[in-house]
TrEMBL record:
It comes from Candidatus Danuiimicrobium aquiferis. One of its GO terms (molecular function) is diguanylate cyclase activity. Its EC number is 2.7.7.65. This is diguanylate cyclase. Keywords: Phosphoprotein.
Length: 303
């Protein structure tokens, strides 16, 4: 359930930009919030230490900190508070790096309107509540219901739970949503011990290759599914290549030697969040057909 009052910490040293943000939030209809403003990172960290903050809005360049140092210190001092970067730096590589480090969003000041700002804040706070809820389910029964015992990833039910919530947010906040499916090439003849080693290795490879805000689920002995919030169709090819490269560069090690896992990857941009969960999961599986064709094409080219 959405918090009735959202407590915001704004870290911005440019007085004009800070006033613009304050006015946008004050004039937003039905947006119940409080806002505290500071111009320096050290003051922000002191305020964070006293607690009772729901979301952080921060510029990258501050009088006492710059870019990577700003985000690193905030993540260290506020690991469970969503961080939205507000910046004038239009740098795709920097955006990817920060998103992968765990910030909620990288927003350009020049493109940020009132409705999109409020929408992103609400989404970040509500999503953070869900993450805390899932992390709090530490008893054996809830772990059995939502998590895969071998890899500690989501299981099918956990994935469907997240998908339902993300679809609702996508409809409400008009945010893009994408999904990927990764199929490990046939390991059905592998003994159980080796199979478990492969699955654990694959899960770690995926976790190291994706953002901390992405959801990964193990669906079977061969298949993993990924849900990527705030992801448009444009970067799908890049993400696919990144995953392929990760599996190629990180072979699984057995006592008898190392093996590169062969994967088939499909992707599906969820353009219509009004689709049912069942329709979307079917479409994600159907995307494997394209992935299989690409896989066969690459295998033929190597011969």
């Amino acid at each position: 359930m959405m918090k009735s009052l959202i407590k915001i910490l704004l870290i911005e040293d440019d007085a004009q930009d800070a006033n613009i943000m304050k006015l946008r939030l004050e004039r937003a209809p039905n947006f119940n919030h409080t806002l505290e403003h500071t111009t320096r990172l050290e003051n922000a960290i002191e305020r964070i230490s006293r607690g009772n903050i729901d979301v952080i809005l921060t510029d990258l360049i501050l009088p006492d900190s710059e870019a990577k140092n700003t985000i690193s210190k905030l993540k260290d001092k506020a690991p469970h508070i969503p961080i939205l970067v507000l910046t004038g730096i239009d740098d795709e590589n920097l955006e990817i790096e920060f998103i992968r480090s765990g910030i909620e969003a990288y927003l350009l000041k020049s493109e940020l309107g009132q409705s999109s700002l409020v929408r992103m804040i609400r989404y970040a706070v509500e999503r953070n509540q869900l993450v805390k809820e899932l992390q709090g389910k530490s008893d054996d029964l809830n772990r059995l219901v939502l998590l895969d015992s071998l890899t500690e990833l989501l299981n099918r039910r956990g994935f469907e739970t997240i998908l339902t919530r993300e679809l609702a947010w996508s409809r409400r906040y008009k945010t893009p949503l994408s999904a990927f499916i990764i199929q490990i090439d046939d390991i059905s003849t592998t003994d159980q011990t080796s199979k478990e080693l492969i699955l654990k290795h694959a899960s770690k490879t995926l976790q190291n290759s994706l953002r901390t805000t992405d959801y990964i689920a193990r669906l079977s002995d061969r298949e993993f599914m990924i849900l990527l919030p705030h992801t448009k169709p444009d970067p799908h090819i890049k993400i696919t290549k990144r995953l392929q490269t990760a599996f190629k560069n990180q072979p699984v090690c057995f006592p008898t030697g190392s093996v590169i896992l062969k994967t088939i990857i499909g992707s599906y941009p969820i353009a219509d969040p009004e689709q049912s969960e069942e329709q979307i999961i079917k479409a994600i599986y159907a995307s494997l057909t394209t992935g299989q064709k690409e896989h066969k094409k690459s295998m033929t080219a190597r011969k």
